[in-house]
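Re: the 228-residue chain
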Amino acid sequence: MINAQNICKSFNNGAVRVLKGVSVNIEKGDFAVILGASGSGKSTLMSVLSGLEKADSGSVIFDGKNISEMNDKQLTEFRREYVGFIFQQYYLLAHLSVENNVKLGADLVKNKDYLEIIKAVGLEEKLKRKPSELSGGEQQRVCIARALAKRPQALFLDEPTGALDEQTGREVLDFILKLKKEQGFTMIMVTHNENIAQTANTVIRMNSGKIAEIYKNSASKSAFEIGW
């Protein structure tokens, strides 16, 4: 599904080296967690794998497509068609309802069945509510629905529970894991939370811009079985 070879990425005209020859392979349908402390390069790796950022060198093959060679316009089209994103911040449009925020994602791929995904995240009774009328967990579920309404081949998540309290964080993570099981998309999540890594199939541990370890969990835990 995603094969990255010898990825290097720097910022500030090369003064800050963030990724230092990273190679990783993520299989179709996998749930991979990229784990590491702040500054380890995990979010930058996610950005490169998803096409948000271009690597300085190396290659990223996504389902047979070499996104490393795409120009900005091609990368925009690639992200719109193949990739969904969920971030720690919600990035919802305050003046739009739940339905219309989700419809924004659905419209990118002309998906007319977006109400089904709203129902799947348990917000069918709050279609007309604005983000300010929702709890933090509900707002994050709107973000999940908006991302999945695009029917992405891969879903990228950057600390999706980082702004939530423990109970809400567990509930949101549980929603994500159930939807992944039902729909079978590939999922890549960035986190510094060691416990959340126990819910994944594959764990990619980063340190100082390099991969320190890659391992498989023998049995993935649920959101309510892990510590927090």
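The first strand starts at residue 2 and ends at 11.
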